[in-house]
Amino acid sequence: MSYEPEAQRAAAHSVTELRDPTTFPPAAVELLQRTLEEFERVHGTEHTRTVDLRRHFAVVLQSRGRVSEALPHFERVLLAHERSLGSSAPETLEARYELALAHRDAGRHEQGLIVLADTVVEAERTLGAGHALAIASRQLRAELLDSGGG
Question: pLDDT (tens digit, 9 = 90+) per residue, 25-46?
Fold first, then answer.
């Protein structure tokens, strides 16, 4: 049985309820990073809660303009979802989309297109062409192509 201090549980819960990452205070970003490190140590890197915390940490970093720091976290989230859920699971498709967004924000349009390569087709096949993620993926792909990414 693992030990999870009350403060750690509270921090993890508040992160999962995060609505506007731009309002996350700087001290909370540091606490979130320490909480993520502790979750990795206690639960492992592939544990669902660790992966969720990593995703939220990446979103917070990205929203604060720290995209180069966020990218490796988005990549690890994608890899964890691919390993545990498979390449066509909705969570995996969303992780691909978020990684492509981060590449766009970093000005890496070609890398964003590479990440999105199968996402549009897979999202349409799995979720339906009218699903919000399928539509957003098509729009992002068009944006990246238009900006010279491919």
Answer: 778 888 899 999 999 999 999 9
CA-closest candidate to residue 140, choices 126, 60, 123, 128? 123
Q: Do 147 and 91 lie in a common domain? A: yes
In this structure, are 51 and 98 located in the same domain?
Answer: no
Among 26, 27, 30, 34, CA closest to 5: 34
How far apart are the C-alpha atoms of 42 and 63, rounded to whole Å? 27
Structure tokens at 120: 């549009």
- The full DSSP string for 59-76 is HHHHHTT-HHHHHHHHHH
Its domain, for residue 36, covers 1-64
> What's this model's pTM, rounded to 2 decimal places?
0.82
Instruction: Give exposure, 88-112, as e/b (b: 16+ Cβ within 10 Å).
Output: eeebbbbbbbbbbbbbbbeebbebb
List the structure tokens of 16.
């999962």
